[in-house]
Amino acid sequence: MRPARATRLIFLLSGIGMASWAPMVPYAKARLGLDEATLGLVLLCMGFGAVMAMPLAGFLTHRYGNRDVIGVSALLVCVALPLLTMAPDAYWLGAALWFFGASLGVVDVAMNAHAVDVEKHAGKPMMSGFHGLFSVGGLVGSAGMAALLKAGMPLTSGALAVSGGLLAIVATQWRHFIVRLHDTDEKHSIFRLPSAAVLLLGFLCLVVFLAEGAMLDWSAVFLRYSRGFDPSLAGLGYAAFSIAMACGRLLGDRITAWVGPVTIVRAGAFLAALGFFLATMLPWGPAALLGFVLVGMGASNIVPVLFSAAGRQPRTSPGIAIATVTSLGYAGMLAGPAAIGFVAQHSSLSIALAGVAVLLVVVSACASIARR
Questions:
Q1: How far apart are the first and last CA of the chain?
Q2: For residue range 61-93, what is the model confidence (pLDDT) as tens digits?
Q3: Disulfide-capable partner of 329 in 37, 78, 205, 290 (CB 3.0 to 4.6 Å)?
């Protein structure tokens, strides 16, 4: 089915675009002479751009349909990526990152709203597979850009090469996107404030994104300073988490069709909580690595299922619902790691990560919302 293939490729595009920035960060730091504190503030601009643009993306998809919003915002991603290499100072870099994050945020909302339409048309779970392609794109984007830079390609040329590949995806797939799915729910969906059910789904996404952010920002620190890992091996925790999550998502549609969305959320959140408890309560390095694998496996399909549930809410535009859920989720990814650091400063990192496990237990208890 061409719309399904186009959706897979736009998820791949989003993952490649976002991850391509990661290998460029050290170059930007060195070129502009930024210290760690300034760089940290500049990097926040990308997240703020995404969170600020997502509510607007919900309105745009409701007003103009998913195809046009995906096409325009994906083109903006292709434009923004090379701009990151041309910023003459920290202020312009922050502005470019804000623009880049906003473009990715709009793509994120529109592609997930489109994925809901494709699922409805196919009549079977497909969201986890789409998100699995995003994870694959993350691996391809970071490794591909790193390889280009390692081969000696100038930074701007590397960014232009990646943008050219992304542009090819947009140009070949744009016509295959569904403009709007004309079923009964879509005809009656209207622009209105998010319902309580959508807000609860957003809170659950916030917790899961917080857990993912904790893995990204704190897993290596935990392994290095709490479990005595060598600095060169401390990144194994996030690698184990990422591989487990990618594998779980690529298998997730079959599992969801077999056990149902409620079981995916309930069992997945419980398994992720168990992983955090295992990593923090047992003082052995291998136990921590196993725990991080369990976090990746458990969390892998929760967000796709919650996005699908948001898109099915009655008498509510899928674009608005998904924009709300995505915005809250990204807010958790932005604020969560800082909150973990605050708790760790006043207690310990183990206690802070165990607190994330407690929140995941709450997600497991609220799993029945995924049925709606």
A1: 26
A2: 878 888 999 999 999 999 999 999 999 999 999
A3: 205
DSSP state of 33: T
In sequence order, the 6+-apart residues with CB closer than 8 A to the CB of 26 are none
Give residue for tokens 């496990």: 357
Amino acid at 359: L
Residue 309: helix, strand or coil by DSSP? helix
Per-residue pLDDT reduced to its tens digit, 115-128? 988 988 888 889 88
- 65: phi > 0 → left, psi -120 to 50 → alpha, else beta; which? left
CA distances from 165 to 4, 17, 132, 145, 161 (A): 20, 10, 20, 12, 7
- pTM for this structure? 0.79
Q: Which amino acid is at 268?
A: G
Query: Which one, of 71, 82, 135, lies nearest residue 107 by Cα?
Result: 71
- Taking the C-alpha atoms of residue 62 and residue 179, their distance in angstroms, rounded to an integer, is 11
Query: pLDDT of 209-258, one tens digit each?
Result: 999 888 877 888 899 889 988 877 887 888 888 889 889 998 999 999 99
Question: One-letter amino acid identity for 203?
Answer: F
Q: What's the CA gap between 110 and 354, in Å, rounded?
A: 34
Nearest Cα neighbor of 79 from 159, 153, 144 is 159
Sign of CA dihedral 214, 218, 219, 223: negative
Rounded Cα gap, residues 102 and 47, in angstroms: 8
Contacts of 183 (CB under 8 A, 6+ apart): 120
Angle at 115 between CA 51 and CA 167, to 5 degrees: 75
Residue 55: count other Cβ atoms within 10 Å of its Cβ: 17
Q: What is the DSSP letter of 151?
A: T
